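Example 426, ligand 2-acetamido-2-deoxy-beta-D-glucopyranose.
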Amino acid sequence: MSSVLQRTVLLLSLLVVVANQLVTARTGKFLHITDIHLDSSYVEGSDPEQLCHRGTGNAGPLGAVRTKCDSSPALVKKTFDFIANKYSDVDFVIYTGDSARHDRDDDLPRSMENVINEQKEVVGHFNKIFGPKVYPVIGNNDVEPHNSCDENDEQFKTIASIWQPLALNTSNHHYTRGGYFYEDVVPGKIRTVHTNTLLFYKDNKKAKADCKSPDGIGSMHLAWLKDVLEESRQQGYSVYILAHIPPTSKKGKAYYTDDCLDGYLSLLGTYKETVVGHFAGHYNNDILSAIVEDDGKYKQLSALKKKKTIKRKTVKSSNFITPLFNTPSVIPTFNPSIRVFTYETEGTKQYPVGTILDWHQYYLNMDDNGRDYELEYQASKLFNVNHFDGKGVEKAFTLMLDNQSVHKEYLDHVTVNTDDNDQDDD
Ligand SMILES: *[C@@H]1O[C@H](CO)[C@@H](O)[C@H](O)[C@H]1NC(C)=O
Ligand SMILES: *[C@@H]1O[C@H](CO)[C@@H](O)[C@H](O)[C@H]1NC(C)=O
């Protein structure tokens, strides 16, 4: 080769290396895991009708899919082993709650001790792999009785002490008041807002989720949320809102009281430039939705509905602004799963720092024992979308309207490739 050609080749390959670095340097990844529901009383070979606690039946070594049983310790271990092998290098982990088992078994009611110990075990698993890189929220089954808490609840302190190895901003004095706090997960760039959705939840038995009167617990939470979002906007932060219970169920019914739902959605809408993603769990399904603006009102629009699919008219006339991600659970209501998000680490004019670029959804096929977690789908490929902001979700919805096979695949993923038996929500 002539030396000119050699130099040109060298220069070109150098450019490729630099370009590659520019591309890889702009993306990071984080893990989202939710609803682990560890059951220390799980008995292999027991009867799923008896919550996998006794009797004789087909409760498998890892659990019993499509039943009301919680997660066996072996399933939880397998899940964390997979994460440790493949994803111990993520930038951080968001954990949207529910470590403890359900209180479904009248013959084996949960004690406060169970609830605390199951959370401790789960935190132990996280801590071994990630230390303080884990960002948690309180789930409706992490308190006793479930669903319920009040302002200044003693349980907030108990949970804080369990969370000690994880990320909990102890200088944030609002935590002991409401169980909510925020963290600067990427200082100067991305802030995680850890909500306590029990304060908005209709089924809270200890205190009314009141967002109407100024001193209601819901109003208190909304006021704090507004302050944090306002401050974040002024400081140029992008915000990830973390919630255990999403605003509405998979069927579109409100989980929050009407006033709380209105107030919450209106904050997500008002701060649309700041909130680049909303992440929740709770109902175990994989659901993609968005906050849409319609005549100055903000609503949540979900891409579920099997027979009555979302209407093209609605998608066309709605202004999609904020993406809401509902990651499916580890508890084997459906096949157990975990998700790895890819995000924008620098930000551009069009796509602020933190914008979700993609996710890889992993699942464990419970009908085929012996298999490990494997890739279920990659969002950018399924939806042909490379930025999951509001517009990206709109593009995904439109594709599902246009292409039956994509819609069908999405519907399979809603129940993590498990035959749908329409389990309860919580
Ligand atoms: C912790 O919270 C305080 C006050 O609420 C805030 O000023 C600080 O930036 C937070 N620190 C981190 C690491 O998130
Ligand atoms: C629908 O999507 C699938 C999967 O991406 C693709 O193979 C197929 O060609 C699409 N069909 C139409 C009509 O666009």
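Summary: Residues 46 and 63 are 10 Å apart (CA to CA).
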